Amino acid sequence: MNLEDSLGDILRKARTSTHTSPEAAAAAAGLSVDAYAEFERTGTPPSGTQFGPLGDLLTLNGPRLEAQSRGWRPQPVDLSQWQRLEVITTAGEDMTVNAFLIWDPVSRQAALFDTGFTAGPIQERIQAEGLRFEYLFITHSHYDHVMALGELRRLNPAVRVRSGSTQVPVEQRLVPDSQFEVGSLKVTHRPTPGHAVDGVTYRITGWAGGAPPVVVVGDALFAGSIGGARDQLPLARDRVWGEIFVQPDATLVCPGHGPLTTVGQEKANNPWFL
Ligand SMILES: [Zn+2]
Prior knowledge:
6-stranded mixed beta sheet; 5-stranded mixed beta sheet; binds zinc ion
């Protein structure tokens, strides 16, 4: 799976958040305005791009940008370590989005994180595995993450929905410090606003065999990037540091888009963090 953001996406997001003109970014990068515009459009750096000064201007980590241009990708993850965790990726018009299904293999109790675009592939797994679908946790209420919510609730009337939104019925709202049990798995949650005002990161522990914790982060963090945060960029970064990067390095990171990664790999390689 490709990274969610190309280098061009990262530069454009950072330029928007820092209110930097294309001309200033081009000058810092040592490029003509046209060459810089082409870089943002294609994600391919023209030869001679000065990543250090460009990163400094845009509050990005220049050497990490350069590493991505040379092909940095997170190490592929062997999901069989987590009993059980499945990624269900569905496609909308111009993007794909990840939902995550977890269950206790003994009790068959299950929870879903986000819905993606379509209920079908999720419902199929629930039925094929004979799961008791108990909780549906929402990372944030952007449409791509909740598109199949109505359909899944219709098919599973007993499922309990939880989200960080203040716009949902009161019984669906997450209560600070509450935790949930899905068989032997435990789910806790922390607010991670920035990309979305109701952004939540869920942490799942209690895996059989002592597998590392899992964090389902929505668009707060991607492998090699972050979800666009515009004027909330300082808050978005602060919450990633305070809630996600404090987890052990081996913690599996499940983002709303793009490949899975780990806390350790993102701390060492993500260009949004210095
Ligand atoms: Zn999204």
